[in-house]
Amino acid sequence: MRKVVAAKLHGITVTDADLNYHGSITLDPDHCDEAGILPLEYVDIWNKASGARISTYVIYGEKGSRCCVLNGAAARTCQIGDELIVCSSAYIETRRIAEIKTRVLTFNRDNSVRDRMFYDAGIKDDGRMTFAVREGSPGNL
User: What is the CB-side half-sphere exposure of residue 100 using CA atoms within 13 A?
Assistant: First the structure.
């Protein structure tokens, strides 16, 4: 089994930080649904401003709010306005790499979606790996 990127929110801006909340990252369910991130799913978070790297779980905020709120101890790793990369992962067998079509959303500063893309990996008949970044969503091929 290999750990691979399953979904990514790239460049989402922190809208709030709540040290006194009981923990997690609060995200807009619209963003999560489109990328394929589930509530309570563990994600890795990388702060583009500070380089901080943490792991926590997702809770859903208000639908349509474009929120990205670090809660509890995670609130100490960011400032409002920092851009984050939020990444979920999955364990798969190598031979199933072509089945994973990692959805990636990139964001404007107001957390509106700027770009939609997906990672397209595969294995050729001769065993060589292939990889491409494709625009849009995998369902729209």
Answer: 26
